[in-house]
Amino acid sequence: MNKKEVAEIRRQYTPERCTITRICGCYIDAEKNIKTELKDAFLALPEDDAFKYFTIFKKTLSGTLGRNLLNLDFPLEEEKEGGAQEFLLKLRDSQLKDDDLIHGFYTKIIDTYNYPENYYIILIHVSYDVPGKASDGMEMYDASDNVYSYILCSICPVHLSKPGLGYNPEKNCIENRTQDWVVDQPITGFLFPCFNDRYTDIHSMLYYTKNAADLQEDFIQKMFGCRHIPLSADDQKETFNTLISDTLGEDCDYDVIRNIHETLNTRLEEFKDEPEPLELGKQEVRRLLEDSGVPDERLEEFDQRYDDCAGEKTSFLAANITSTKRLNIETPDVVIQVKPESASLVETRFIDGRQCLVIAVNEHVEVNGVNVRILQSPDEPDGNDDGTM
Questions:
Q1: pLDDT range class, residue 364, cuts 50, 70, 90
Q2: Which of 77, 163, 241, 293 is the most exposed place for a label (fewest CB within 10 A)?
């Protein structure tokens, strides 16, 4: 799924557009015991409850594609009888009215999901009558020929509220506040099947993780049978950095690294309105290095280094391996953060036999919020010379 398709589904979670048919929920304690369950028609919920659930569902489809939202394909064996995809398909087609399937779904999550505290599983079934689109992109609700039927699961931590004082309006006094268990925003979830090209794609699913550094690979493999899991955002960045270091060797200096990230940021800016995120495979990374001034002799063994570091079929999302907000420069004792467009103000020079980072100062300098005086060159007048001795 791309950004536009995800956004189209998220827009349905409002009272006016809602096509959720049924909701089920299961509260699990830290010992993996089922404490309570919910089964109801969604439209039968109190209005205030429905609004809070809408917020949770939108959050489950939020974040950056390739970082928080991952498109996963099912292996062929999982689509056969007894496979994970086949089970999810039965669950969807039951419209959450089969208690045995629902309980089996809860059991699968309890057995495979690694979370040491209380959590709440929310599962909904939705039948979205997909409107047609005119040539100008306007939706035509009277031209629908496609119903997208899907399930969305959200896994939310449940925490005990903090102790404190509160106002009791009945007693008109301040007193100790009663602690209760609060359902937080989801940390994991998925949508099945995918909504690709605005049609149902039963061969793939969309997986959500709040923490992009922890995809819960074991849960994905055991719950959904997906073997080919993309590298997490942090792993992509670490692998890319290792690849760059190994490829450049002694030529890995500040200017080359700055050029690489400037080129990446330029391409991200050019790609920002595209529905698909900017993805770099082996050939795109090679072209990136060439455009950033990496010498040809350093690229002679690039293909082998790429396969060794990342794997031949591995690709990187540009948003995961660079930052459009800042360039971090770190030494053991000093950390410098520079806006990418101002990276050229930092240079490396040898001064008195030592390699130094030199920062050009064009305006004022602040230290802990205090403006400090900028030293002038000894060869320049101080501006206060009145000609007297």
A1: confident
A2: 163
Confidence class for position 379, pLDDT limits 50, 70, 90: low
Distance CA 188, CA 216 (A): 9
d(CA 50, CA 308): 50
**Amino acid (1-letter code) at residue 256:** V
Burial class (CB in 10 A: 0-12, 13-18, 19+), 148: buried
Residue 311 pLDDT greater than 50, yes or no: yes
Q: Facing residues of 195 across strands?
A: 200
Name residue 127's amino acid: S
Radius of gyration of the chain (CA): 27
Q: Which residues pair with 23 in a beta bridge?
A: 40, 124
d(CA 166, CA 172): 11
CA dihedral 43, 49, 52, 57 (to 10 degrees): -30
- pLDDT of 150: 97
How many whole angstroms separate alpha carbon 34 and alpha carbon 24? 13
Phi, then psi, of 89 in degrees rounded to 5: -65, -40
Cα separation, 339 vs 326, in Å, equals 5
Question: Per-residue DSSP letters for 136-186?
Answer: TS-EEGGG--EEEEEEEEEEEEEEEPPP-EEEETTTTEEEEPPP-EEE---
Tokens of 185: 């925003």
Question: pTM for this one?
Answer: 0.82
DSSP state letters, 203-235: TEEEEEES-TT---HHHHHHHH----PPPPHHH
Strands (DSSP E) contained in 202-242 are 204-209
Helix or strand (DSSP H, E) at 72? strand 69-73
Q: What sign does the dihedral 270-276-278-284 (CA atoms) show?
A: negative
Reference 112, options 225, 228, 235, 234; nearest CA is 225
